[in-house]
Design a protein that fits this description.
220 residues; mainly alpha; Serine Threonine Protein Phosphatase 5, Tetratricopeptide repeat; 2 strands; 66% helix; binds adenosine-5'-diphosphate; binds magnesium ion
Protein backbone atom coordinates (compact mmCIF):
# COMPACT_ATOMS: atom_id res chain seq x y z
CA UNK A 1 0.00 0.00 0.00
CA UNK A 2 1.25 3.51 -0.78
CA UNK A 3 2.52 5.50 2.17
CA UNK A 4 0.36 8.30 3.44
CA UNK A 5 1.59 11.79 2.74
CA UNK A 6 2.74 13.66 5.82
CA UNK A 7 -0.23 16.04 5.48
CA UNK A 8 -2.74 13.18 5.46
CA UNK A 9 -1.01 11.60 8.43
CA UNK A 10 -0.98 14.81 10.45
CA UNK A 11 -4.69 15.43 9.89
CA UNK A 12 -5.59 12.08 11.41
CA UNK A 13 -6.73 12.05 15.03
CA UNK A 14 -6.04 8.90 16.96
CA UNK A 15 -8.80 7.65 19.25
CA UNK A 16 -9.05 4.77 21.71
CA UNK A 17 -10.14 2.37 18.94
CA UNK A 18 -7.01 3.25 16.97
CA UNK A 19 -4.80 2.29 19.93
CA UNK A 20 -6.71 -0.96 20.45
CA UNK A 21 -6.19 -1.77 16.74
CA UNK A 22 -2.47 -0.94 17.04
CA UNK A 23 -1.93 -3.36 19.92
CA UNK A 24 -4.07 -6.06 18.26
CA UNK A 25 -2.00 -5.67 15.08
CA UNK A 26 1.20 -5.86 17.15
CA UNK A 27 -0.06 -9.02 18.88
CA UNK A 28 -0.77 -10.60 15.48
CA UNK A 29 2.76 -9.72 14.32
CA UNK A 30 4.21 -11.30 17.47
CA UNK A 31 2.18 -14.49 16.83
CA UNK A 32 3.41 -14.59 13.23
CA UNK A 33 7.07 -13.88 14.08
CA UNK A 34 7.41 -15.64 17.45
CA UNK A 35 9.49 -18.53 16.10
CA UNK A 36 11.78 -16.13 14.26
CA UNK A 37 12.25 -13.99 17.41
CA UNK A 38 13.06 -17.06 19.47
CA UNK A 39 15.49 -18.23 16.80
CA UNK A 40 17.31 -14.87 16.96
CA UNK A 41 17.40 -15.17 20.76
CA UNK A 42 18.79 -18.70 20.54
CA UNK A 43 21.88 -17.31 18.74
CA UNK A 44 22.78 -14.63 21.32
CA UNK A 45 20.45 -15.22 24.28
CA UNK A 46 18.37 -17.96 25.85
CA UNK A 47 15.84 -18.71 23.11
CA UNK A 48 12.78 -17.25 24.82
CA UNK A 49 12.14 -13.84 23.26
CA UNK A 50 9.37 -15.03 20.93
CA UNK A 51 7.61 -17.04 23.63
CA UNK A 52 8.04 -14.21 26.15
CA UNK A 53 6.34 -11.70 23.87
CA UNK A 54 3.71 -14.19 22.75
CA UNK A 55 2.70 -14.78 26.36
CA UNK A 56 2.74 -11.05 27.08
CA UNK A 57 0.77 -9.93 24.03
CA UNK A 58 -1.80 -12.71 24.43
CA UNK A 59 -2.41 -11.42 27.96
CA UNK A 60 -2.57 -7.83 26.69
CA UNK A 61 -5.14 -8.72 24.02
CA UNK A 62 -7.27 -10.64 26.52
CA UNK A 63 -7.18 -7.84 29.10
CA UNK A 64 -8.00 -5.13 26.57
CA UNK A 65 -11.00 -7.16 25.36
CA UNK A 66 -12.24 -7.81 28.92
CA UNK A 67 -11.85 -4.30 30.27
CA UNK A 68 -11.59 -1.87 27.32
CA UNK A 69 -9.93 1.34 28.59
CA UNK A 70 -11.52 4.73 28.01
CA UNK A 71 -8.63 6.64 26.43
CA UNK A 72 -5.53 6.13 24.27
CA UNK A 73 -3.27 6.74 27.27
CA UNK A 74 -5.20 4.18 29.34
CA UNK A 75 -4.88 1.55 26.56
CA UNK A 76 -1.09 1.87 26.56
CA UNK A 77 -0.79 2.07 30.34
CA UNK A 78 -2.90 -1.07 30.86
CA UNK A 79 -0.99 -2.96 28.15
CA UNK A 80 2.30 -1.93 29.73
CA UNK A 81 1.23 -3.13 33.18
CA UNK A 82 0.13 -6.45 31.69
CA UNK A 83 3.46 -6.95 29.92
CA UNK A 84 5.33 -6.27 33.15
CA UNK A 85 3.19 -8.78 35.05
CA UNK A 86 3.34 -11.58 32.45
CA UNK A 87 6.78 -11.43 30.79
CA UNK A 88 9.57 -12.72 32.98
CA UNK A 89 12.50 -11.77 30.73
CA UNK A 90 14.31 -8.46 30.51
CA UNK A 91 12.01 -7.44 27.68
CA UNK A 92 8.85 -7.48 29.85
CA UNK A 93 9.77 -4.60 32.16
CA UNK A 94 11.39 -2.73 29.25
CA UNK A 95 8.41 -2.99 26.87
CA UNK A 96 6.08 -2.50 29.81
CA UNK A 97 7.86 0.72 30.70
CA UNK A 98 7.78 1.87 27.07
CA UNK A 99 3.99 1.49 26.87
CA UNK A 100 3.22 2.68 30.41
CA UNK A 101 5.31 5.82 30.13
CA UNK A 102 4.09 6.59 26.61
CA UNK A 103 0.52 6.14 27.86
CA UNK A 104 1.11 8.32 30.89
CA UNK A 105 2.56 11.05 28.66
CA UNK A 106 -0.66 11.00 26.59
CA UNK A 107 -2.73 11.78 29.68
CA UNK A 108 -6.48 11.06 29.58
CA UNK A 109 -7.45 12.80 26.32
CA UNK A 110 -10.06 10.90 24.29
CA UNK A 111 -8.16 11.59 21.05
CA UNK A 112 -4.57 12.54 20.36
CA UNK A 113 -2.75 13.90 17.33
CA UNK A 114 0.13 12.08 15.64
CA UNK A 115 2.44 14.84 16.93
CA UNK A 116 1.28 14.18 20.51
CA UNK A 117 1.87 10.45 20.07
CA UNK A 118 5.34 11.17 18.63
CA UNK A 119 6.21 13.28 21.66
CA UNK A 120 4.83 10.67 24.08
CA UNK A 121 6.80 7.91 22.35
CA UNK A 122 9.98 9.91 22.84
CA UNK A 123 9.19 10.04 26.56
CA UNK A 124 8.57 6.27 26.59
CA UNK A 125 11.77 5.48 24.71
CA UNK A 126 13.78 7.71 27.07
CA UNK A 127 12.30 5.77 30.01
CA UNK A 128 13.46 2.48 28.45
CA UNK A 129 16.97 3.89 28.09
CA UNK A 130 16.92 5.01 31.70
CA UNK A 131 15.60 1.71 33.06
CA UNK A 132 17.99 -0.50 31.08
CA UNK A 133 20.99 1.82 31.14
CA UNK A 134 21.49 1.25 27.40
CA UNK A 135 21.77 3.60 24.46
CA UNK A 136 21.73 3.28 20.69
CA UNK A 137 24.68 1.19 19.52
CA UNK A 138 24.55 -1.23 22.48
CA UNK A 139 22.68 -3.81 20.34
CA UNK A 140 19.33 -3.67 22.12
CA UNK A 141 15.74 -2.70 21.37
CA UNK A 142 16.89 0.94 21.57
CA UNK A 143 18.65 0.50 18.22
CA UNK A 144 15.19 0.29 16.65
CA UNK A 145 13.23 2.50 19.07
CA UNK A 146 15.54 5.52 19.08
CA UNK A 147 15.70 5.92 15.27
CA UNK A 148 11.91 5.51 15.16
CA UNK A 149 11.38 8.17 17.82
CA UNK A 150 13.98 10.36 16.12
CA UNK A 151 12.21 10.06 12.76
CA UNK A 152 8.91 11.08 14.34
CA UNK A 153 10.63 14.14 15.77
CA UNK A 154 10.99 15.61 12.30
CA UNK A 155 7.75 17.37 11.44
CA UNK A 156 7.33 15.77 8.00
CA UNK A 157 7.75 12.17 9.11
CA UNK A 158 4.90 9.68 9.00
CA UNK A 159 4.57 6.49 11.02
CA UNK A 160 5.68 4.62 7.89
CA UNK A 161 8.96 6.57 7.96
CA UNK A 162 9.39 5.70 11.63
CA UNK A 163 8.73 2.02 10.89
CA UNK A 164 11.37 2.02 8.16
CA UNK A 165 13.84 3.67 10.56
CA UNK A 166 13.07 0.97 13.16
CA UNK A 167 13.55 -1.87 10.66
CA UNK A 168 16.81 -0.34 9.39
CA UNK A 169 17.95 0.07 12.99
CA UNK A 170 17.20 -3.59 13.73
CA UNK A 171 19.17 -4.71 10.65
CA UNK A 172 22.04 -2.46 11.69
CA UNK A 173 22.44 -4.40 14.97
CA UNK A 174 23.96 -7.36 13.09
CA UNK A 175 27.59 -6.12 13.07
CA UNK A 176 27.38 -4.67 16.60
CA UNK A 177 28.80 -6.22 19.75
CA UNK A 178 26.21 -6.35 22.53
CA UNK A 179 26.97 -4.15 25.53
CA UNK A 180 23.73 -4.72 27.48
CA UNK A 181 21.51 -7.64 28.33
CA UNK A 182 22.18 -11.36 28.12
CA UNK A 183 23.85 -11.10 24.68
CA UNK A 184 26.62 -8.97 26.21
CA UNK A 185 27.87 -12.06 28.09
CA UNK A 186 28.98 -13.41 24.68
CA UNK A 187 31.34 -10.50 24.05
CA UNK A 188 32.62 -10.59 20.47
CA UNK A 189 30.59 -13.72 19.75
CA UNK A 190 27.46 -11.55 19.76
CA UNK A 191 28.71 -9.94 16.52
CA UNK A 192 27.04 -11.16 13.32
CA UNK A 193 23.53 -11.72 14.74
CA UNK A 194 20.47 -9.48 14.66
CA UNK A 195 19.22 -8.42 18.09
CA UNK A 196 15.88 -10.05 18.97
CA UNK A 197 14.56 -7.06 20.93
CA UNK A 198 15.42 -4.59 18.16
CA UNK A 199 13.62 -6.94 15.77
CA UNK A 200 10.45 -7.08 17.90
CA UNK A 201 10.57 -3.29 18.40
CA UNK A 202 10.54 -2.89 14.63
CA UNK A 203 7.43 -5.13 14.57
CA UNK A 204 5.73 -2.88 17.14
CA UNK A 205 6.42 0.32 15.17
CA UNK A 206 5.52 -1.37 11.89
CA UNK A 207 2.19 -2.38 13.47
CA UNK A 208 1.63 1.30 14.32
CA UNK A 209 2.31 2.32 10.70
CA UNK A 210 0.05 -0.46 9.38
CA UNK A 211 -2.74 0.67 11.72
CA UNK A 212 -2.42 4.26 10.53
CA UNK A 213 -2.56 3.12 6.89
CA UNK A 214 -5.43 0.66 7.17
CA UNK A 215 -8.95 1.89 6.41
CA UNK A 216 -10.79 1.78 9.73
CA UNK A 217 -13.59 -0.56 8.76
CA UNK A 218 -11.19 -3.07 7.18
CA UNK A 219 -10.05 -4.33 10.57
CA UNK A 220 -13.48 -4.59 12.19
P1 LIG B 1 15.96 -12.12 28.41
O1 LIG B 1 17.21 -11.47 27.86
O2 LIG B 1 15.75 -11.88 29.86
O3 LIG B 1 15.85 -13.57 28.01
P2 LIG B 1 14.20 -11.47 26.24
O4 LIG B 1 14.85 -12.59 25.50
O5 LIG B 1 12.71 -11.46 26.23
O6 LIG B 1 14.72 -11.34 27.71
O7 LIG B 1 14.63 -10.07 25.58
C1 LIG B 1 15.94 -9.87 25.11
C2 LIG B 1 16.01 -8.49 24.47
O8 LIG B 1 15.84 -7.49 25.46
C3 LIG B 1 17.36 -8.20 23.83
O9 LIG B 1 17.42 -8.67 22.51
C4 LIG B 1 17.46 -6.69 23.92
O10 LIG B 1 16.93 -6.07 22.75
C5 LIG B 1 16.57 -6.34 25.08
N1 LIG B 1 17.37 -5.89 26.22
C6 LIG B 1 18.02 -6.64 27.12
N2 LIG B 1 18.64 -5.88 28.04
C7 LIG B 1 18.36 -4.58 27.70
C8 LIG B 1 18.69 -3.30 28.26
N3 LIG B 1 19.44 -3.20 29.36
N4 LIG B 1 18.22 -2.20 27.63
C9 LIG B 1 17.45 -2.29 26.53
N5 LIG B 1 17.10 -3.47 25.97
C10 LIG B 1 17.55 -4.59 26.54
MG1 LIG C 1 15.85 -14.26 26.08
Amino acid sequence: MADQTADQANEQTLDTAFFLRWLTTAAEAVEREADQLTELDSAIGDADHGSNLQRGFRAVTATLAEEPPASPGAVLALAGRRLISTVGGASGPLYGTLLRRTGKALGDAAEVTPAQLAEALRVGVAAVAQLGGARAGDKTMLDALEPAAGALGSSYATFATAARAARDGALATVPLQARKGRASYLGERSIGHQDPGATSSALLITALADTAEAPEDESR
